[in-house]
């Protein structure tokens, strides 16, 4: 029976060698008998929200929103957009991650965001992370990840570069004290 990790953070341990996930934090959005899917929440892509909206023929009403960094959500489907947000499920294609957190993949949420009518808090990512049946459980057994709770400040407020240490700190871990972290700045 898989561990229900939906709405948990996966915090990469310093020794995790996979370049896609080194020093990453991934929010598990779905976890069941078939595997798991999540969005990395601390890795910047090369795009801004304005770039993404422009590719869709949309224009952001707010210049600050247009400059918002789009995240690299993971190596699976890097051409596909994902919006992690708070608020209700009033969008065409949303997955409820928790009582207050949703993942939406439909165009309507980006149209609303461009007009200033989107959710109060949202982050946009290109791509996602995926694990086949039993793969994530094995990675946890192999001590590649720590798990921790999700909070809105970490997802929507903290600077990207502060999130990895902050997520670990919230569960009482200081990476500077781990042997595998020695020598890393």
TrEMBL record:
SUPFAM superfamilies: VC0467-like (SSF143456). One of its GO terms (cellular component) is cytosol. It holds the Pfam family DUF179. It comes from the Bacteria. Belongs to the UPF0301 (AlgH) family. PANTHER family: UNCHARACTERIZED PROTEIN YQGE (PTHR30327), UPF0301 PROTEIN YQGE (PTHR30327:SF1). This is UPF0301 protein IP93_02070. It comes from Aerolutibacter ruishenii.
């Amino acid at each position: 029976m898989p561990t229900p990790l939906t709405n948990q953070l996966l915090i990469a341990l310093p020794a995790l060698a996979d370049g896609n996930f080194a020093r990453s934090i991934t929010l598990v959005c779905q976890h069941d008998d078939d595997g798991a899917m999540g969005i990395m929440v601390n890795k910047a892509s090369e795009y801004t929200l304005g770039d993404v909206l422009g590719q869709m023929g949309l224009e952001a009403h707010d210049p600050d929103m247009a400059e918002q960094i789009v995240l690299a959500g993971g190596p699976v489907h890097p051409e596909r957009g994902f919006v992690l947000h708070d608020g209700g499920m009033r969008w065409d294609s949303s997955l409820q991650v928790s009582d207050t957190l949703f993942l939406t993949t439909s165009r309507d949420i980006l149209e609303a965001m461009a007009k200033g009518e989107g959710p109060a808090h949202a982050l946009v990512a290109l791509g996602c992370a995926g694990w086949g049946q039993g793969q994530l459980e094995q990675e946890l057994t192999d001590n590649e990840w720590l798990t921790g709770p999700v909070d809105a400040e970490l997802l929507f407020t903290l600077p990207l570069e502060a999130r990895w240490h902050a997520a670990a700190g919230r569960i009482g871990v200081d990476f500077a004290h781990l042997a595998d972290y020695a020598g890393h700045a």
